[in-house]
Write a structure and sequence with these properties.
Layout lengths: L1 E2 L9 H7 L9 H18 L4 E6 L2 H10 L7 E6 L2 H12 L3 E6 L8 H10 L5 E5 L1 E2 L4 E2 L2 H9 L4 E5 L11 H4 L3 E5 L10 E6 L1 H9 L9 H8 L10 H17 L1 H21 L15 E5 L6 H12 L1 E2 L1 E2 L8 E5 L6 H14 L6
Parallel strand pairs: 1-12, 3-4, 3-5, 5-8, 8-9
Antiparallel strand pairs: 2-10, 6-7, 9-10, 11-14, 13-14
Helix pairs in contact: 1-10, 2-10, 3-4, 5-6
This protein binds pyridoxal-5'-phosphate.
Length: 359
């Protein structure tokens, strides 16, 4: 089976074995060691010395934590959105009474730093800027370095959704000075769904001291306090922590430069193979994601039918489009536990399935 959706992604055997271990006391010494070790290793992947907190929830819970811990009702934020997940991030803020100034870009486009700059000039009172690093719904990667450079000209908090970027793409948190960066376990981390990660800068902790949105489960200050003793405030997903520990070991053995290079090479390989078949990628080449490729169905392919044939006859699972992109694109996930050989198998199957899915 080739599960090639942009999360959950396949897990290596080492991770599956680790996740199947017997439970331990989550307030005991084994878990404490595990918690300290995984936190330190997570920081290496995040390229940060900031606090790194692990939450038991899906990625969306992490995004919620990024809002409720640093803002107050009535605060203004600039939401830079290039797709479905950017909109979700904004919706969470609205839900908690934050005033969202939307800066939306067309699906398949990356955010234009000049427009972000203009929006910040026009709205000097925004407290934070929300950005999606890698927009999974459109297979588009924002130029986070360029966006960050512009945002840094203004004294704002930068809240980043890097759920489908972190662990696969280079996002040096400290070098860029990103305040809050969210990751999610079932994407590039090669582990099952159930954990979300948040890095928190000094500046973000200052904002936390005055932030008044009510919070309980997602309270990061509480998580920080418990981490001192190698614990989490509430019972963590212990089994996924075991998997995380094993995955981090694999990742650090491969090394960050090689992980990034592998994703760049596979992204390029996938785009070339797509184009060879006369198909088009949704975003432009410069911003096409190296973790997920969105392919236009055009008027030649019935995308849902293609997915169905691939799944039923060739055991290849791809994703469709979300919201407005439903039926218009299909998406190939290539993050985490993936090699060029896996992708070759996907395209071999596609060659057989494409003629059957022609419109
Ligand atoms: C997957 C994903 C999310 C949501 O994560 P869940 O784990 O489904 O809650 C948010 N943002 C991005 C960019 C994602 O890829």
């Amino acid at each position: 089976m080739q599960l090639r959706i942009p999360g959950p992604t396949p897990c290596p055997p080492e991770v599956l074995q680790a996740s199947a271990k017997q439970m331990v006391n989550h307030r005991g010494v084994e878990f404490k060691d595990l918690m300290f070790r995984t936190t330190e290793n997570l920081k290496k992947i995040y390229q940060t010395n900031n606090d790194l907190l692990v939450l038991t929830c899906s990625g969306t819970g992490g995004l919620e934590a990024a809002i409720v811990n640093f803002l107050s009702p009535g605060d203004k934020v600039l939401s830079v959105s290039i797709g479905v997940f950017g909109e979700r991030f904004a919706d969470i803020a609205r839900t908690y009474g934050v005033e969202v100034i939307p800066l939306k870009f067309e699906y398949g486009q990356a955010a234009d730093p000049d427009k972000v700059k203009k929006a910040l000039q026009d709205n000097p009172d925004v407290k934070a800027v929300m950005v999606t690093h890698n927009e999974t719904s459109t297979g588009t990667t924002n130029d986070i370095v360029a966006l960050n450079k512009v945002i840094k000209e203004f004294d704002k908090l930068i809240l980043v959704d890097s759920i489908s970027g972190m662990a696969s793409l280079d996002i040096p948190v400290d070098k860029l000075g990103l305040d809050v960066v969210i990751g999610g376990s079932q994407k590039g981390w090669m582990i099952p769904p159930g954990l979300s990660f948040a890095s928190v800068s000094e500046k973000a902790w200052k904002a936390n001291e005055v932030a008044r949105i009510p919070r309980f489960y997602m309270d990061l200050a509480k998580a920080k306090k418990f981490l001192v003793n190698g614990e989490t405030p509430w019972t963590p997903a212990v089994g996924i922590f075991f998997g995380l520990d094993a995955a981090l070991e694999l990742m650090l053995k491969e090394g960050l430069p090689d992980i990034f290079a592998r994703h760049i090479a596979i992204g390029q390989f996938v785009r070339n193979e797509v184009k060879k078949r006369g198909l088009e990628i949704l975003p432009d080449d410069q911003h096409a994601s190296n973790t997920v490729t969105a392919v236009k169905a055009g008027d030649k392919i019935d995308a849902p039918k293609l997915q169905k044939i691939l799944r039923e006859e060739y055991q290849v699972v791809l994703a469709g489009g979300q919201k407005d992109l439903k039926g218009k694109i299909f998406r190939i996930g290539h993050m985490g536990y993936v090699s060029e050989k896996d992708m070759k198998e996907v395209f071999e199957a596609m060659d057989k399935a494409l003629p059957q899915a022609a419109k």
